[in-house]
Amino acid sequence: MTVQTSGGAGTASRVAMVCAFDIWPDGRADPIDAAWPSAAKQDGAAYRWLHFDVAGQGIAGWARHLLRALAAATLLQCVTRPRCDVLEGGLILNLRGVNLNAGANAEDMVSLRLWISAGLIVSARLRKVWAIDAIRQEAEAGTAPQTLEHFLTAVTHGLTKRLEKASLHLVEETDALEERAIDAGPALSGELAGLRQSVIKLRRFVRPQSEALADLAGGTVWPFEKQHVALLEDTKNRVLRTLEELDAMADRLSAIQDHVEVVQAAALGRNGYLLSVAAAIFLPLGFLTGLLGINVGGIPVTESPYAFALVALASVLIGVLLFLVFR
Asked: What are phi and psi of 222, to 5 degrees?
């Protein structure tokens, strides 16, 4: 969606929005596709939702012109971490969701930045966030979240639901890897490293996200009703449970890694021992053949037609004797 808005110098500039709606108390959503000079909602509307891509056309100038300086700077950041803070009369909420975009890895989590003030929600992203896209589809169908509080609970619930699904998939992979590690051992090293990396990437953002949701559910950063607090508390507990599963997976994968390393060390020890035995067996044989092969006079039995057979037989007997000793 491309929306025309007035620039800071009085000239018109075009802003590329992902979507923009005025949401009414009954869930009906009116798309905003005409020029609007401010982020104020229509009279009677419950709130206005503006969603944009950080890299979109004209977004930086629009945000700095219509939003508070700190809010604009926070929304336009390239790199974020989960947080929940009250700033300049509004709420800054940064969250992370699993990456469900085509060709991407789920653990490469996508960021969602939200600025919430009275009657206004501004959301920003760099890559598509499917939890937000689900709300966009609901708005187009006329069943959008009816209040700001409904919107926040829907977003957090959608992000958490997809996070739980990705975590469950990793749990299943860990279970399968744990069973195969008993027999396969070192052959699983590459798969094990990839799975550990996935868990590390998820844990990096899930832990601060659980803290942000705890602040949000605490009721001190935004005046939620009891029903919304209950939903946020449930979402927070689900994120904490996911975090505990990720911690447990990290410990299990570490134990599997230890097992693989023990198996590798045992294999190296066996191979080293076999090489040592082989070297110990052939060392005297090499000395014997080297001694008989020196080009000086006086080598015994050089004229005997049975000399080679005798030396070969002696070498075999010495080799068998040394093998039995080492065995």
From this structure: -155, 140
Q: Check if the beta carbon of residue 50 is closer than 8 Å to that of residue 67.
A: no
Token pair 């012109």 in the structure block, residue: 65
Distance between CA 206 and CA 236 in Å, rounded? 11
Read off the pLDDT of residues 75-126 as tens digits, 9 standing for 90 and up.
898 888 999 998 878 899 999 999 999 999 999 999 999 999 989 999 999 9
Q: Exposed, middle or buried by CB within 10 Å (0-12, 13-18, 19+), for 222?
A: buried
Compute the chain's Rg from CA coordinates.
35
Secondary structure element (H or E) that encloses residue 284, with its range: helix 226-292
Q: What is the pTM of this model?
A: 0.77
Instruction: State the Cα–Cα distance between residues 298 and 40, nearest whole angstrom.
Output: 112
Q: Angle formed by the axes of helices 148-184 and 226-292, to 10°?
A: 20
Q: Which amino acid is at 317?
A: L
The three-state DSSP-derived secondary structure of 171-236 is: HHHHHHHHHHHHHHHHHHHHHHHHHHHHHHHHHHHHHHHHHHHHHHHCCCCCCCCHHHHHHHHHHH
Are the CB atoms for 159 and 86 separated by under 8 Å?
A: no
Q: At 131, is the secondary structure helix, strand, or coil?
A: helix
